[in-house]
């Protein structure tokens, strides 16, 4: 038992995006500049809650990411010119039960990055469901359609409603 | 002769690539190998490189065709064996492709959830993460092999058991530091050489508690064995 537990000690239980980034090597004066060859950082673009200027974009980023990291990430990986980056850490809100008001759980803390694009670049957050309606709307339509056909069926076979549908 | 064959091969290769690849493999020792291999190489689809188009910030979103779709088809993650035969620069490029893909999926998932929808095929995130982890393990293997060749050690810093300020044994992984630990005064606050006499009493009590617990467990196991043998005598020497 104990030996098997020992083997499990090194098992990685967290998904990669939740893990801490690996330690940077210790830097001493005169060493070459540290370079990230394989960054573990992630960023996700989020829709701004308020109206913002055209050249601003908002991201939720890896909690260990610094302002310089965000700037380098966008410039080197995505080839987007960046003028300025600011970050802010938000505490997750409490999820309360509506009826009694006690706290059930807490939302995740997150770091948000406010990016200002350079060189007159602008970006508008696209509307994903402009042309193709989302799946739930389609399903709701189907349910309505089924209900309508059921009513029509009832009207048609008003005298045989007690008999199962297969025998009508 | 060679010219005629080349034109013939070119005409076949227009029809299908696979047959030419097969032909070139078949005639490896013939004198016409060069003319054949050049033609086949030009026609092989695996050597046709295309870089992904750069869309700037729109790379954070899926292609427009998949917006609002119910199902999005995707392949399987990269396997370890496939990654082992790739060189380092290819793995480096693939890492960034996967990084962008994961960012895209996170963005889409967040936006879908904001619109109270579900992301189609969310297992894509796990697939990308699996291939990323496979790349990490392959690179670790290469690092270890390189270190073993160069220094005879794997390069793993390892760890050691130390006594902490409570006087309890604790495993500690070795990490890089600017000064050795015996020159660091904060290290001796956490891991002092000698534990104070006040804590010694409690260590003794803690050890006693552990000892008692262990004995209680052993006794309960012994009693259980005894009871089992009373019930099932044929288990006499087997337990």
Comma- or semicolon-separated keywords:
heterodimer; A: 168 residues; alpha+beta; Alpha-Beta Plaits; 4-stranded antiparallel beta sheet; two-stranded antiparallel ribbon; 3 helices; disordered N terminus; B: 239 residues; mainly alpha; two-stranded antiparallel sheet; 8 helices; 2 strands; Nucleotide-bd_a/b_plait_sf (chain A); ribonucleoprotein (chain A); Large ribosomal subunit protein uL23m (chain A)
Can you characterise this structure?
The complex is a heterodimer of chains A (about 170) and B (about 240). With about 170 residues, chain A is of the alpha+beta class. Chain A has three helices and six strands, in the order αββαββββα. Chain A has a domain of about 80 residues: RRM (RNA recognition motif) domain (Alpha-Beta Plaits), CATH 3.30.70. In chain A, strand 4 and strand 5 form a beta hairpin. The termini of chain A are far apart. Chain B has three domains: about 40 residues; about 90 residues; about 80 residues. Helix content of chain B is about 55%, strand content about 5%. Chain B has a two-stranded antiparallel ribbon. In chain B, strand 1 and strand 2 form a beta hairpin. Chain B is extended and about 70 Å long. The termini of chain B are far apart. The N terminus of chain B is likely disordered. Chain B: One of its GO terms (biological process) is mitochondrial translation. Chain B: It is found in: Mitochondrion. Chain B: This is Large ribosomal subunit protein uL29m. Chain B: One of its GO terms (cellular component) is mitochondrial large ribosomal subunit. Chain B: Its main location: mitochondrion.
